[in-house]
Specification:
Helix 4 (99-107) links the parallel strand 5 (90-93) and strand 6. The protein is α/β, with parallel strands linked by helices. The chain is globular and about 60 Å long. It is 34% helix and 21% strand. The structure holds S-adenosylmethionine.
């Protein structure tokens, strides 16, 4: 086995038997479906993401959007340099369709272990099949990862934590899987002030997250044209503050290299991504720092990282004990 998988419940070794892994300790069977081991119930709260990423599987990948936004965001957020990653054990948590997986594998020679709770792992596999065994993919939850504690030199989790039921418990899980001296990097939706949740997304979400996913997607598709026109118009006349009352993603952050139809597709996807998830809990940077320091980490960076094409709110931490 050239992967680091173990039983997510007991940490004991796994034995491969046909199209399954079997836990040596508990004899529990984890199926391998479409070439991907599954360590969690197939149906779970992140179903909307599985739906989304299997429809928009290529939309945000650099190689399809003709931009380097994902690569620039990845290295800007992590502060890592691609040539120093080979030979290290690295874990990605919440990979979605694999935009960061792709940027990582394309720019390094390293192997990557990557998990997601939804069946977006299938989109990720299709997108990154050409990297062979350098990508070790599994469907699993951040709360029950199929790896022994203290395994990884580096762990990254980008665009995920606000969508988990407990931000603090999720951070604790990431720290557990890093080695002592290892680094954990997360980015997340920030609370910028009292006005953060005065936004059409948070007004509509109690309804939209309960809607059938296909219906919600069709409604967004039907309305995207006028929403884009209204958004662009408000920006053009200097009233960009009012765009928060249109239930559309902030399209100013999309790569400028996109064609008209790609911009439309990206806007539909990002709007669905905002309105459909079960959880959406933005955080204060100071609170996230505390979640790390109270679990034996030193903070090496906390704040906003600006890169060409956007910015992310990031915390980087080193596991001390
Ligand atoms: C907004 S998407 C981001 C995906 C990817 N990181 C990106 O930026 O394109 C959030 C992802 O987190 C995953 N996720 C949510 N809860 C999770 C959990 N408990 N364990 C692992 N992944 C989870 C979802 O399935 C989804 O693919």
């Amino acid at each position: 086995m050239n992967n680091l998988f173990c039983c997510p419940v007991t940490g004991s070794p796994l034995v491969k038997s046909g199209e399954s892994y079997i836990s040596e300790a508990t004899k529990e069977r984890f199926p391998i479906l479409e070439g991907i081991p599954r360590f969690c119930p197939i149906e779970n709260y992140s179903e909307s993401f599985g739906f989304q990423w299997n429809i928009f599987e290529q939309t945000q990948l650099d190689i399809y959007s003709n931009s380097s936004l994902t690569e620039v965001r990845f290295y800007g957020s992590t502060g890592w340099s691609p040539d120093k990653l080979s030979g290290e054990n690295i874990l990605e948590v919440g990979s979605g369709a694999g935009r960061f997986t792709e940027a990582f594998l394309r720019t390094t020679k390293a192997t990557l272990h990557s998990i997601d709770f939804s069946n977006a792992v299938e989109a990720n596999r299709r997108n990154n099949l050409n990297y062979g065994s350098r990508l070790q993919l599994a469907q699993a939850s951040i709360y029950q990862m199929p790896f022994a504690d203290n395994t990884f030199d580096k762990v990254f989790c980008l665009g995920v934590l606000q969508h988990t039921p407990s931000f603090a418990t999720s951070i604790k899980s990431l720290i557990q899987k890093a080695k002592v001296g290892g680094e954990i990097v997360v980015d997340f939706y920030p609370i910028k002030g009292w006005y953060t949740k005065i936004h059409s997304k948070y007004i509509f979400r109690p309804i939209t997250k309960r809607m059938p996913k296909r219906l919600l997607l069709n409604l967004i598709r039907l309305n995207i044209r006028w929403m884009l026109i209204a958004f662009d118009l408000l920006c053009a006349i200097g009233c960009s503050l009012l765009t928060r009352f249109i239930p559309i993603t902030d399209v100013r952050s999309l790569p400028p290299t996109l064609s008209r139809s790609q911009r439309r597709e990206w806007a539909i996807m990002d709007t669905f991504d905002g309105l459909s998830p079960e959880y959406d809990s933005p955080q204060r940077v100071e609170d996230v720092k505390k979640m790390f320091t109270s679990n034996g980490c030193d903070i090496s960076f906390a704040g906003v990282v600006n890169y060409s094409g956007g910015s992310s709110t990031v915390v980087r931490a080193i596991k001390r004990s």
